[in-house]
Q: What sequence folds into this?
């Protein structure tokens, strides 16, 4: 993990910030890779993890293999995207959690900014999974982590993408 953290601005993912991970395409494999990547990050935190989603399609054995035991996760299943955003924001504002995760199709700029402010205020780690690629405006999340397939296999690696300007975060270059 130290090798990965050394490549990230500021030496790792910051608490009190919103981070976004997007799959490299529209397929289920890309969505699963992004969800497991987030699960691995959340597993390395302490405390409960709140996971907000509209489709309960997570595979628990895979989450356990990346280190996130299902007993640590509080799932919030919502009927629509707006409810996911409201639940995500409420959990971020609550604080005291290991991580707060939301699976979203769209993340409007206003909502993104509200979520970033909620994470900053509580010191919580906010993680957004963008499982379906769509045309989008630049988010206000601290950093975006798109996932790209490696050598045609199902393994993926995070690609470097720009970060929002902040202390120790001048942006990345490939």
A:
């Amino acid at each position: 993990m130290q090798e990965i953290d050394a490549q990230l601005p500021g030496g790792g993912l910051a608490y009190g910030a919103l981070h976004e991970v997007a799959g490299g395409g529209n397929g289920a494999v890309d969505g699963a890779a992004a969800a497991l990547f987030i699960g691995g990050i959340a597993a390395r935190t302490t405390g409960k993890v709140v996971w907000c989603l509209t489709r309960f399609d997570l595979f628990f054995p895979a989450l356990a293999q990346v280190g996130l035991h299902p007993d640590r996760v509080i799932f919030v299943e919502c009927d629509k995207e707006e409810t996911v955003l409201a639940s995500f924001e409420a959990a971020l504002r609550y604080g005291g959690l290991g991580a707060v995760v939301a699976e979203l199709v769209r993340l409007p700029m206003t909502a993104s900014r509200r979520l970033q402010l909620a994470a900053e205020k509580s010191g919580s780690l906010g993680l957004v999974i963008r499982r379906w690629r769509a045309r989008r405006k630049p988010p206000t999340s601290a950093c975006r982590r798109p996932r790209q397939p490696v050598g045609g296999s199902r393994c993926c690696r995070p690609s470097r993408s720009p970060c929002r300007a902040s202390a120790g975060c001048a942006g990345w270059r490939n």
Remarks:
- The first helix runs from residue 2 to 7.
- The chain has one domain: 16-158.
- The beta strands are 17-22, 49-53, 73-77, 99-104, 125-130, 143-149, 156-158.
